[in-house]
Amino acid sequence: MDVASVIHLALDAGLHAVQELLEKWRRRWPSDALDPPEVWERVVALRRCALRAFHTLVPALATSAAVKKLLAFDEGETLLRSAKGLMRAVGPGRIDSK
Question: pTM of the full predicted structure?
Fold first, then answer.
């Protein structure tokens, strides 16, 4: 097996691992009924930190077109889901308007 084949296999395995991670993250969110808004903020912040570390530690995979597409899609979903969760966690009438 040549070096290019090994790299290709490693990138495919890495892409699969990223897909699995993002899928788990999509299914796991704090409870908008039980958890305070701070928990939502922490979850989003920690996920962003993890993705920054991923870009630093595995730049060849992080810069591949397939992973970029996955991460761009996930970023939109994360923003939408976290915004909805935060709004539900805060609830109507609980936001101070000063």
Answer: 0.75
Placement of tokens 């890495």 in the chain = 14
**Would you list the domain boundaries of the chain?**
3-90
> Using an 8 Å Cβ cutoff, are 37 and 87 in contact?
no
> What span, in angstroms and rounded, lies between the C-alpha atoms of 19 and 76?
15
- Exposure pattern of 32-69 as b/e (b: 16+ CB <10 Å)? beeeebebbeebbeebeeebeebeeebeebbebeebee
Tens-place pLDDT, residues 8-63:
677 788 888 889 999 999 999 998 888 888 998 999 999 999 999 988 888 888 88
Distance (Å, rounded) from C-alpha 36 to C-alpha 49?
Answer: 21
